[in-house]
Specification:
Rossmann fold, 8-stranded mixed β-sheet, transferase, Glycosyltransf_2
């Protein structure tokens, strides 16, 4: 089992920060995927009076799957103690005095060594940092960054650190400059590390972070999340009011807070006094009265002066929301009895306002001050509540109190507000909100022996998916089954509206021997889905425990409507291991039984497949999404799958050729491509069946240069059509050979001219044609040495040009090596009729560069036929 190490800079046994860690760790842990260790930060934060204090009964407050832990040996670091941390905060952070910085650096280096030693001893593969940027202890933060960089590089872990800031300098008493002033020169700023992904609680915090560190690349919003479930009186909490002396019929206001001046509990006491003449109301303050005894005494005195002392209950510390400990009440127990949650806090103190979310999730209305970030988190997101503008009115006004009273007493309005808030809360901070992001960025660990991840993009594939997954499950190696520990399936749901996801999860549950992961890609398009799956698999493959750093790992692409042969994966693996190529390309075929009674269509398909078999064996071919494998390191070296966009009818659309473009990038970067002819995929013929008009006219993917995916599944399903006429068969073949030849005979040597010196390639082209192609390729590459940014343009255009210039010669060689039925080149576009022969090459260039109208793309079939 791998290890997740969490560290909270809060130095509190069960604070809101720790609770959020537990929620995150619970999700990441899944089915016991990680052993979870938590450092509460006693040896980090100086103002909680716990520095170096041994743990006592804190473990009883945490789930039994959490191991309380800390970095060993910190008490032995010379000069590192509570007094030093306090001095650094005062002298360096608040007053910009550099005198201690040399000592900070020396101590941070010692701490970093001890952090690494602890992680090495445990075998840590994932780290969660809570509130590490807040500069309470910049020495420890520096040490943590140093340890992360060295440990991550040594173990090749990728982004193994989830760094989340609940509080930041501008959210925590900025007026007092407790943590210095912008640009916070003493605070270790977030950095672009290959090992860290940052998270802010909301968009405003993310934006402010980027103002501070404009080039920070990896930062997302990960809100606090809550279980949206009505808090109810039950057997556990039925005596809550009785135990605290609150009458059963009294209106109960709940304030969940630390009892310190910044929380402004005095406003709640004033509100209670204003409600006293119209409501039998009580105020329950859930907080530790011992943290700031002077503030507790002040509030008690205020309540006495306002005549409501007997109605203010200081109930002590409650266990956090949704926790349940024997003999203790929780925040949710309080909310089961409360009529209203109040949150009349300081303007510049709060960063999120968890009590508001807790109230919303529990079905309790709330009233709040308009603190600095209220609108960013709640007010502008559709939540409804009485709001006191504390920049105008320091204490509750009569109008505010009237609005609160109405919300408590008017059952119709109360129900309407609760329902509206709950709907918004479920969408914005329900449990599922964080799950997708966490699953994408910190996916479950991979089996130690895994060598391949099969990425399967899916969109509404309920009709085919079970069979496709079965063929992936039943993979063979020789005469026996392929070891399921060697591979996994990553299914990428691309916004399916049918039962696709349910079928995938049911299959996974029924076949526990094969790891099947289901992730979601919200941006529509197979290119986006394929990229998401590849990134998911690549990230996880870095975290396999005990992996030999020299062992290759492979990302494999499959199509959700195609069935793979039993030895598909084993043959791909063997081809990659033997050749050490960057990419291995499969063989593809159609089931001939599907084309019974359609001999003309079958003949056109077979001629294309015969051509492909010859050229793939020479050049390796290019990856098709239906089946290829790529070495993970080669994938990452070229930046992975890249999604290009085109304009169609005034809107940006995904360009469909991500698989071919990716192959071009890898080959152009020097990555060899190999062909695995015994790794076979059966193509689903539905595109031919149900888009036959487009197939015949070469418009199966679009027109005018727009190559996009479109859904060709009929509603209801159609059966295979009749055979092609002779004219249709001729047109279909013309488009097939025009698409095939530039891609599969010209593009490989355009990318790798040295192929024209290989003996088999020279034998295919013939010495004279090989030499002429080599000279012309050199001329065109020199002419186009400043190229477009997109491979589809950088290489597609010159491939078209070379085809038009050499079509007669190349088709002659195909007839020689594949068969006379390959025939002769299709007619040239009509625009060349009036071009003088001596200027043919010149006008070919103009024609192939014509991207405005897409004439050349239309002529060449716009992406393939068979």
């Amino acid at each position: 089992m791998t290890v997740l190490w969490g560290v909270s800079f809060d130095a509190t046994p069960l604070s809101g920060v720790v609770v959020e860690f537990l929620k995150t760790a619970r999700h990441l842990r899944g089915g016991n995927r990680y052993r979870v260790h938590l450092d509460l930060g006693y040896d980090i934060k100086a103002d909680k009076n716990a520095f170096f204090r041994p743990y006592r009964d804190e473990a009883a407050l945490l789930p039994d799957w959490v191991v309380l832990d800390r970095v060993a040996g910190l008490e032995d670091v010379p000069g590192y103690d509570r007094a030093f941390v306090g001095r650094v905060l005062t002298e360096v952070v608040q007053n910009d005095d550099p005198a201690l910085l040399e000592q900070v650096g020396r101590i941070a280096a010692d701490i970093a060594d001890r952090i690494e030693e602890t992680w090495e001893r445990l075998g840590v593969t994932l780290v969660v940092v809570e509130n590490g940027t807040l500069p309470e202890n910049i020495t420890y933060t520096r040490a943590l960054y140093r340890a992360i960089e060295r440990y991550g590089a040594r173990h090749r872990l990728g982004r193994f650190v989830l760094w989340r800031d609940h509080d930041l300098m501008w959210q925590s008493e900025p007026g007092a400059a407790k943590y210095g002033r912008f640009p916070y020169p003493a605070t270790p700023a977030p950095r672009n590390s290959p090992h860290v992904h940052y998270f802010a609680l909301h968009e405003q915090a993310r934006a402010r972070t980027l103002e501070w560190v404009p080039d920070l690349a990896h930062i997302d919003v990960l809100p606090n999340t809550f279980t949206c479930r009505t808090a109810e009186v039950d057997g556990h909490n039925a005596a809550f009011r009785r135990d605290h002396g609150i009458p059963g019929n009294a209106a109960l206001l709940a304030r969940i807070t630390r009892i310190i001046p910044q929380k402004r509990v005095d406003r709640d006491v004033h509100l209670l006094a204003m409600l006293a003449d119209r409501l039998d109301a009580y105020l329950f303050v859930a907080g530790d009265v011992g943290e700031a005894p002077g503030e507790h005494a002040r509030l008690a005195d205020l309540a006495s002066r306002l005549g409501v002392r007997e109605r203010v209950v200081f109930g002590g510390w409650l266990t956090p929301y949704d926790t349940r400990l024997e003999g203790r009440y929780s925040v949710r127990d309080l909310l089961a009895h409360a009529d209203l949650v109040t949150f009349l806090t300081s303007y510049d103190y709060e960063s999120y306002g968890n009590p508001i979310s807790e109230a919303v999730a529990s079905g309790t209305p709330y009233a709040t001050s308009r603190y600095e970030l209220y609108d960013a988190v709640y007010g502008d997101r559709g939540f409804r509540a009485p709001v006191l503008d504390v920049r105008v009115h320091d204490l509750p006004t009569r109008a505010f109190a009237d609005e609160v009273a109405e919300l408590i007493t008017d059952e119709g309005k109360r129900g309407e507000v609760v329902d509206s808030n709950r709907e918004a809360g479920e969408a914005l901070f329900g449990e599922g909100v964080a799950a997708g992001l966490l699953d994408r960025l910190y996916p479950p660990p991979m089996k130690p022996r895994a060598r391949m991840s099969v990425v399967l993009p899916v969109y509404n594939e309920a009709a085919n998916l079970d069979e496709v997954l079965r063929t992936l499950h039943d993979q063979r190696d020789g005469d026996g089954p392929l070891d399921k520990d060697l591979y996994e399936v990553v299914l990428v749901d691309n916004n399916s509206t049918d039962d696709t996801v349910a079928i995938a999860r049911a299959f996974a549950a029924a076949h526990p021997d094969l790891a099947v992961h289901v992730i979601h890609e919200p941006e529509q398009g197979v290119s986006c889905a394929r990229r998401a799956g590849m990134e998911f698999a690549a990230t996880r493959s870095r975290n396999r425990p005990g992996t030999d750093v020299g062992e290759r790992f492979y990302l494999v692409s499959a199509d959700a409507d195609c069935r793979v042969d039993p030895h598909w994966l084993a043959e791909l693996l063997a081809a990659m291991e033997t050749s050490k190529a960057a990419i291995a390309v499969c063989d593809y075929y159609y089931d001939p039984d599907h084309f019974t009674g359609r001999p003309r269509l079958w003949d056109a398909i077979q001629r294309t497949l015969r051509c492909r078999a010859v050229t793939f064996s020479l050049f390796g071919g290019f990856p098709d999404g239906k089946g290829f494998a790529v070495d993970r390191d080669a994938y990452e070296r070229v930046g992975g799958i890249e999604v290009f966009y085109q304009l169609q009818d005034g809107k940006f659309v995904n360009h469909l050729s991500d698989d071919w473009d990716f192959g071009i990038k890898v080959a152009n970067a020097g990555g060899p491509v190999t062909y695995a002819p015994r790794s076979r995929v059966e193509i689903n013929p539905r595109r031919i069946d149900h888009a036959i008009d487009e197939v015949v006219t070469g418009r199966a993917y679009g027109s005018d240069g727009i190559i996009v995916m479109r859904d060709i599944r009929p509603q209801p399903p159609a059966t295979a059509g009749d055979d092609l006429t002779e004219e249709q068969a001729r047109l279909a073949w013309d488009f097939s050979i025009k698409d095939f030849t530039p891609k599969n005979t010209i593009l490989p040597v355009l990318l790798t001219p040295s192929l024209l010196e290989d003996e088999p390639v020279v034998a295919f082209f013939g010495p004279d044609l090989a030499a002429r192609l080599g000279r012309r390729i050199a001329e065109i590459r020199d002419e186009m040495r400043v190229t477009d940014f997109a491979p589809i343009h950088s290489y597609k255009t010159p491939s078209y040009r070379l085809y038009l210039e050499f079509a007669d010669d190349i088709l002659a060689r195909l007839r020689l090596h594949v068969g006379e039925d390959i025939g002769f080149p299709p007619p040239l576009p009509p625009c060349f009729r009036d071009v003088p022969p001596e200027r043919f090459t010149e006008f070919v260039r103009y024609y192939c560069e014509d991207r405005e109208s897409g004439e050349a793309h239309n002529y060449f079939g716009n992406g393939g036929v068979f």
